[in-house]
Structure formats: structure tokens, C-alpha cells
């Protein structure tokens, strides 16, 4: 179905607004992918915060103009599926990598993050980025480690001086004398 000028402008405006706020972009060849596979991929994309769309490359090229994904304009060739990560940078990479395992027809062609263009092989790198929850857990562990190490060092010094267990008893005897 051919789009008229106003429909094309709407598609470009929608893609442009998504591209302006997205963290990463993956353009993948999808020719030969079945309807059921595409439906499953779209459902998973909605659940994981990925904007997934099939549009003509000329419209996509116009939509990314003026955004950090402008670097991909020359690489948009052939039938492509566009996956924009809207919530976390690695979401589109995980989606494309997961569905490419079961479908050899789905092949990443372009990866763009932070205004940089990367080869298609960087989908694996993007997919390996931690989720927000994983990153927060790693940060908490890193912040907790110095406190834990300090507590262990204080306990080791107290045990070495022999005051590890006797210290609470001395305090209770000192409190008992004045009474």
C-alpha cells in the first residue's frame, strides 16, 4: 500500500521523535522472516521498550536527520527493520540477537549508539550491556565493598589484640561498679 504525502510526513515525524530520544538503533535485514516470527518479535519489542518499525529507507533517512543517528543515513540499503532502544541502550541488541538465533534470515546491518556507527558485529556487544536493574546491583555491590572491607579489618585488628570478645564484658563491669 502506497502512502500519500501526509502519511509519509506522519511516519517521518513519528520516527524522528523516537530517534530524538532513543539510546541506540539497529537496522536489520528481515527478508524471509515469517509473519508469525515478526508478530512475536513485535510483541517482545513492546515488552522490552524497543520501538520496532519497518519503513522505507528514504523515510527513515529523513527521520534520523538532525539526530545522533544521522551517521547511518548512507548505510540504509535494502529492506530493513528499524529497532530503537527507548528505555535502555542494550534492549534492541538483545531483541535482535535473540530472534536472530532462531531465524537465519534476520541479520543486523547497522548499529548506532551515541552518534557513532558500528559494524553489525557490535550487536553482541550492545546485547551484553547490563539492564538498569543489573547496573544498579553492580553499583550497590561496588559501594558496599569498602564498608565491608573496613569492618573486616577492624574485626581482624580487634581479634589480633585479643579484645574481640572481652571488650563487651569490660564495658558491663565498668557500668556495674558505680551503682
CATH superfamily of the largest domain: Ribosomal protein L10, N-terminal RNA-binding domain
Mean pLDDT over the residues: 83
Unreliable segments of 5+ consecutive residues: 170-174
Which architecture of the largest domain does the CATH hierarchy give at level 2? 2-Layer Sandwich
Strand content: 15-25%
Major sheet: arrangement of strands: 2-3-1-4-5
The run of helices and strands is HEHEHEHEEHHH
Total separate domains = 2
Helix-strand makeup class: alpha+beta
CATH fold description of the largest domain? Alpha-Beta Plaits
In whole angstroms, the N-to-C terminal distance is 95 Å
The major pleated sheet works out as:
5 strands, antiparallel
Amino acid at each position: 500500500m502506497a502512502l500519500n504525502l501526509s502519511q509519509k510526513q506522519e511516519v517521518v515525524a513519528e520516527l524522528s521523535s523516537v530517534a530524538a530520544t532513543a539510546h541506540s538503533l539497529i537496522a536489520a535485514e528481515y527478508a524471509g522472516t515469517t509473519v508469525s516470527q515478526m508478530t512475536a518479535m513485535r510483541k517482545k519489542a513492546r515488552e522490552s521498550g524497543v520501538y520496532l518499525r519497518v519503513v522505507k529507507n528514504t523515510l527513515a533517512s529523513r527521520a534520523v536527520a538532525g539526530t545522533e543517528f544521522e551517521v547511518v543515513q548512507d548505510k540504509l540499503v535494502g529492506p530493513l527493520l528499524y529497532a530503537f532502544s527507548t528505555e535502555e541502550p542494550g534492549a534492541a541488541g538483545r531483541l535482535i540477537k535473540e530472534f536472530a538465533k532462531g531465524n537465519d534470515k534476520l541479520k543486523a546491518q547497522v548499529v548506532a549508539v551515541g552518534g557513532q556507527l558500528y559494524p553489525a558485529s557490535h550487536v553482541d556487544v550492545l546485547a551484553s550491556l547490563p539492564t538498569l536493574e543489573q547496573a544498579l546491583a553492580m553499583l550497590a555491590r561496588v559501594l558496599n565493598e569498602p564498608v565491608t572491607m573496613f569492618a573486616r579489618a577492624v574485626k581482624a585488628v580487634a581479634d589480633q589484640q585479643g579484645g574481640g570478645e572481652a571488650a563487651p564484658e569490660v564495658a558491663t563491669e565498668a557500668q556495674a561498679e558505680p551503682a
